[in-house]
Structures are given as C-alpha cells and as structure tokens.
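Lay summary

Proteins are chains of building blocks that fold into shapes. Our project writes down both the chain and a compact code for its shape. Here are two examples, one after the other.
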Amino acid sequence: MLLDLLAGLWGAIPSAGVWQNAGMTSSKHISSADSTGSVAHQILQIVAQVPSGRVATYGQIAELAGRPRSARLVGRVLAHAQEYGDYPCHRIVNHAGRLVPGWEEQAELLISEGVTLTDYADGPHVDLRRFQWEH
C-alpha cells in the first residue's frame, strides 16, 4: 500500500531541467495542491524555496503543503529528491533542529551557508530560534 502511494506521488514530478528553469526562488506560501495534484511535486517546490542560511523542519514543510500531520511523508519524498533535480534537502531538519544521522555532508553544507551547529549526544543541531525559515 505504501509503495502504491509513493508511486502515485512520484509520477508527476518534472525533470531536473524543468526545475532549473522554473525560477523557484520566491517565498510564496503554498497551501493547496499544484495543478498536477502531486503532493511530492508540491513538497519539492516548497523545499526549493528555503533560502541559503536558513532551515525548515519536516513538519513545517508538511504544513505548508497542506498536510500538517505528514512530516514523515516529507522525509520519504526528500529521500528520493535527487532523482528529480537539485533541491536544498540539507536545509530540512527534524522538529528539534537535529540533522540527519550519518549524513555528514549536511553539516558541511549548512556551515558553508553560515548556519551554526551545536553538538549534542544525539548529533549536531541547528538553533531553530536563530535559523528557522520564516515563510
């Protein structure tokens, strides 16, 4: 059942070339489904808007996509994002600001954008009060 859901989500995502030319840099608040009806497309469109030096949470992206209780769905979509283009997935963190465990490049990319990290027992965290994207 989950595979059927995900298969339906991936179907309408445009190719990388389309995204590179789409100009997805505005900070427009997106609250309803796009014309394709694809939740995955909508999630990736929102992720593309998170500016350099800022982070968003999975739950924040889900809420902006009109699915406030679907943070895990956002994670599943982002796990496949590289198949559809170049998205700033490194700017998405959990509700506590924790980075993805085992993805060292995420920390490097965030630091290169000026985001400060703090080490905790469960891994590096971003101070959401300072760096969370205000959409």
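And here is the second example, written the same way.
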Amino acid sequence: MAQRPVLCNDHDANSGVRVGMDRRAVLGLFAKLAAIFGLARGASAQGVLSTFGEEELQRLRAAYPYPILTVPGRVAVAEWEKLKRAGQGWPVIIGDDEALGRMLEAFTIDDPSIYPSSDEVAGEWPASRSVEEILTAADTIDVTSELQRRFEEEFGPDGLEPEPGEWPEPGEVGGSGLTVHTDILTQRVFAKVHLTVLPTDDPTAVPAYLRWGGWNECPPPEVHVAVHRKWREQYGAQIVGISSDTINMRVARRPASREEALALAREQYLYCSDLIDQGTETLEVLAASLMADDWWYFWWD
C-alpha cells in the first residue's frame, strides 16, 4: 500500500537517516549559482537520480487530469513553442522522470486512492482547493504588501535587507536560460523530458492548476498567481518550466534601467529570498542579471 510522503523529508533507503534536505540544499545552491552567473545550466535540485519506478509513475499519472507529453530533452523548448502556437492550452516543461514524479506526488498528496489517509499524517498537508478557489484568492492579494508581510513573518519586522554590492562589469553576469530540462551535475540536457498542457491560455494560472506551492518558504499557489499577474503586466513574464521546486520564466521586456532592475530584484528577493541568500549574495548582481537575460529562475527547498 502506498504511503503518503513527507515531501521535503527524504530518507536514505539503507540507513534510514534523513538526507534529502541537505542534498537538495547543496544541489539547489549549485543550481542557483550556475543559473545566475551563467556558469552552467542547471536543472532543479531533484533532477539527479530518479527514485520513481515506471509502475509508480504510471499510477501517479493516472490520477493527474491533464495531458503529459514526453519528448527528447534537446527539443523541449521547440516543442513548448509548438504547443503554445497550437493554442490548445498552456504548455509547461516539467523535466525528467524524477521531476515529474515529485510534481505528481505533490498534486495527488490528498488523493486517498494514491495515499490513503492515516492518523499519523492527517492534517500535515493542506486540503487541495479548486482552480477557481485559488484564482479567486489571488484576486484579493496586493502583491507588494503580501510579499512584505510574508518576509516579515519569516524573518521578523527587522529582517535584514540584502547586502549592498557593486554593479557587475559587462559580461560578468550571464543568464539562466531554461534549467528544468537539464541535469545540474552533468550539465547535460536530459535524454527525455516531460511536458504538461493545462486547460488555460493564461500562464499566470499555472500554479493554480498544478496546486503548486505552500511548503516551507515557498508561497501558496494564490500568491504565485498574484505575483505572476503583476510581472506579466510589467514584463510579459510567462512560465515556461516548472518542476517540483523550480520555476523558469521568460520575459518579453527586461528592466529598462538600473533603478528599475534594483526595484524588481528586491521584489524577487521578497518572493524567493534564496535568490540572493544562497545565490547572487547581493541585490546588484541579481538586478544586473535581470537586465542581461530574458529568463528568470526561482527555487525553493
């Protein structure tokens, strides 16, 4: 009988010792540095060695209501573009089998046919809400005040601002590009990559359809939706890739000035503090990367 997983508390199968969080933190840090500085194109932290067998993946896929396509990793972006042009829904690149398994695991977390309820885990994971409920909740959110509130809730009202730094020289900061289709250790594109197509033409609704977020410091789905609506209006930002812990967005417009880029970088820091705390280390480096590339990268452990 399948057991309901504790998503961020992986255990070593042989020793029973909790190792997942440390591993994901280390790999996530590598991915951030690689993505922001252009040193390598990393995938999400889980895309290293799949822990999902074919039978388990099929069971999870059967409980997932949206189409899933599998393509060679090297054509993932081209396939995404093709699906987007087809206008039959919003496509999202997920990643390899491990990324797909973890995403489906989270999506089906309260499905009793997948993870039967037990007294031990009851109440540990919030009940799933409908897409409509999440989108309605997003309508009520003021992004600026909500991000500040969440930051102060996590770090206190006197939480430290990012360290000041110098603006990088031209060419010192690279872009992330798409990362979810790539192995962060080998820096190679996965042989096969999964995509899903959601029944919407609105990319800001992706977190609502996938029930994505709401663990540790990762905002709940409605906050993602509200933030992405704001960035869509300002920068034409669209989700292209999303794994179990990573979001890849692509923008149509970059910040036009350093001042604008710094303001956006601070907003992104409130949204995803590890961008700086475990990545660029300064607001200026993050801001410079936003002016240098059309791709945005976010990761939560």
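What can we say about the second shape? Residues 54-116+128-162+186-299 form one domain.
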